[in-house]
Amino acid sequence: MSVLVGKQAPSFTAKAVQGENIIEHFSLDQYLGEKYVVLFFYPKDFTFVCPTELHRFQEEIAEFESRNVQVVGCSTDTEFSHWAWLQTPKNKGGIQGVSYPIVADTNKTISNDYDVLAGEYAEDEDGNLVVDGEMVAYRGLFLIDKDGVVQHQVVNNMPLGRSVKECLRVIDALQHFEEHGEVCPMDWQKGDDAMTATHEGVSGYLSK
């Protein structure tokens, strides 16, 4: 598994769906210099754990917007699958009401570049192309700053849903560091004491 933290987020252009609209050429480049991005991958449309995550991000969308963060979902499904899922009511297993873009990684190149693709191609003894595992994305999440640099990543296996609260906490920590130059210790929450780093190490907790 690649560690992308500290590196430029892989660039891509792909189809995406937002509401009832299919976007032909969607790219994260549009947010450079303007917004932070939370890019999260999920395995499949029309499943069980996935909609709980997509709805949860939507429920907290105002919190992300207040932090100048653009939420973007992505899976290896087609844009037509995304569109159909977005038009399906929540009580029927759909994600109707989700307002942020959902990228169609149909060719699986985005998941591969972010190293969250579960399966991989191989050849059998006869030289035939085979797949080891299922070619869908793990539950990867990447926090990308306004310069396009990955500042945080987490990857869960298929059965393990993520925490939107933890995602917001990490965003707060990053923005606190950028604004004040103070580092944030374990379980730091917005409004807590932070710490200042020196050449000799960490000098200690600072007052609020």
From TrEMBL:
GO molecular function: thioredoxin peroxidase activity
InterPro entries: AhpC/TSA (IPR000866), Peroxiredoxin (IPR050217), Peroxiredoxin_AhpC-typ (IPR024706), Peroxiredoxin_C (IPR019479), Thioredoxin-like_sf (IPR036249), Thioredoxin_domain (IPR013766)
Gene3D superfamilies tied to this protein: Glutaredoxin (3.40.30.10)
Highest rank taxon of the organism: Bacteria
Domain (Thioredoxin): residue spans on this chain: 3-176
Keywords, comma-separated and alphabetical: Cytoplasm, Disulfide bond, Oxidoreductase, Peroxidase, Redox-active center
GO biological process: cell redox homeostasis; cellular response to stress; hydrogen peroxide catabolic process; response to oxidative stress
A Pfam match: AhpC-TSA
Compartment(s) of residence: Cytoplasm
GO-annotated cellular components: cytosol
Active site: 50 (cysteine sulfenic acid (-soh) intermediate)
Family listed: Belongs to the peroxiredoxin family. AhpC/Prx1 subfamily.
PANTHER family, A to Z: THIOREDOXIN PEROXIDASE, THIOREDOXIN-DEPENDENT PEROXIDE REDUCTASE, MITOCHONDRIAL
Role noted for this protein: Thiol-specific peroxidase that catalyzes the reduction of hydrogen peroxide and organic hydroperoxides to water and alcohols, respectively. Plays a role in cell protection against oxidative stress by detoxifying peroxides.
Protein name as catalogued: Thioredoxin peroxidase
